[in-house]
Amino acid sequence: MTQVTRRPPFGEDSPVRQRTVQAGGLEVPILEAGSGPLVVFLHGFPDHAASWAGILERIAQEGYWAVAPAQRGYWPGGAAPDGSYNIVSTGQDVLTLIEALGRDEADVVGHDFGAAAAYTAATLDPKRVRKLVTMSGPPGRQLMNALVSDGDQQRRSWYMFFFQSAMAEAAVAHDDFAFIDRLWREWSPGYELPDAERTALKETLAAPGVLTEVLGYYRQLFTPPADEATQSLLARAFGAITVPSLYLHGAEDNCFSVELSDGMDDLFTNSFERVVIPGAGHFPHVEQPKAVADHIVGFLNS
């Protein structure tokens, strides 16, 4: 039986390598393993690229080049060059990274805000995204409708509105990021993030300047871009998805309920499959890494 190993501190014996890549005006830190067709893994919040480590190893064993970049803002010196954290910018980051890695196309896997970037990359340039895997975050149109009309989802998404306040940085960082511990407990009931992984995540968020940049994703979430060109791209990003797609959602997700993804197949014009992962909350790639890796491998190899 194939296992998925989890080890965020990357020692000399780890097949996961670390380096930086010049892309989009930034020196982007990446984790990578293997060689072959490119598969890009995009993290969300509150998370970081290291949470993909075990799955990178598994995907590499299957003959792929698995790469997990840090999303813009998630490292010192990684602030968005244009100040933008909207999905147009993060989606374009995906396409820029594919080019920077010397490839014409890639399979793209995204979780949470990483899913939003993955959807956008696939709608902005579907020729560059061969297959799409997203999890724990339906397409933007689906989510925005819920935030307007679904009282239960509004209650679950209280943090999005709190992050608009000036006190958010202090509140999140207080007491060794107890706020982050609370989100993980609430969003993935019954799951406890191992101490080493919890420490590594908090070190990412505590690095100079990172927390303010990360909150920028939320502070720009409800603000339409001012320029017409970006508005046009944003409209495209909310359009139909034309590449073969797989969607995964944890059955116990208490951030975005599994019901939020009901009916999302209408937004996909190519092959589409939705899979609910038993025993997983909002972070299925961390909570049930073998099940998630099996689904990804089966989809990529199909």
What features would you describe in this structure?
With 302 residues, the protein is α/β, with parallel strands linked by helices. It has a single domain, classed as Alpha/Beta hydrolase fold, catalytic domain (Rossmann fold), CATH 3.40.50. Helices cover 41% and strands 17% of the residues. It has an 8-stranded mixed beta sheet, sandwiched between helices. Strand 1 and strand 2 form a beta hairpin. Helix 1 runs parallel beside helix 12 and helix 3 crosses helix 10. The radius of gyration is 18 Å and the shape is globular. The two termini are 20 Å apart.
Summarize this structure briefly.
This protein has helices spanning 53-61, 87-100, 113-124, 140-149, 151-156, 158-162, 168-187, 195-206, 210-219, 228-237, 284-287, 289-301; strands spanning 17-23, 26-33, 38-42, 65-69, 106-111, 129-135, 245-250, 272-277. With 302 residues, it is of the alpha/beta class. The mean pLDDT is 93.
Which keywords apply here?
Rossmann fold
The CA-CA distance between the termini, in Å, is 20 Å
Q: Provide a count of the helices.
A: 12
Oligomer state equals single chain
Q: How large is the share of residues in beta strands?
A: 15-25%
CATH class: Alpha Beta
Please state the CA-atom Rg, rounded to the nearest Å: 18 Å
| Order of secondary-structure elements | EEEHEHEHEHHHHHHHEEHH
Q: Which secondary-structure class do the elements indicate?
A: alpha/beta
What is the share of helical residues? Answer: 40-55%
Overall pLDDT: 93
- What name does the CATH topology carry? Rossmann fold
**Fourth-tier CATH superfamily name:** Alpha/Beta hydrolase fold, catalytic domain
Number of separate structural domains = 1
Largest sheet: 8 strands, mixed
Tally of strands? 8
Strand order of the largest sheet: 1-2-4-3-5-6-7-8
Choose one word for the global shape: globular
- Examine the secondary-structure arrangement and name the CATH architecture: 3-Layer(aba) Sandwich
Low-confidence stretches: none
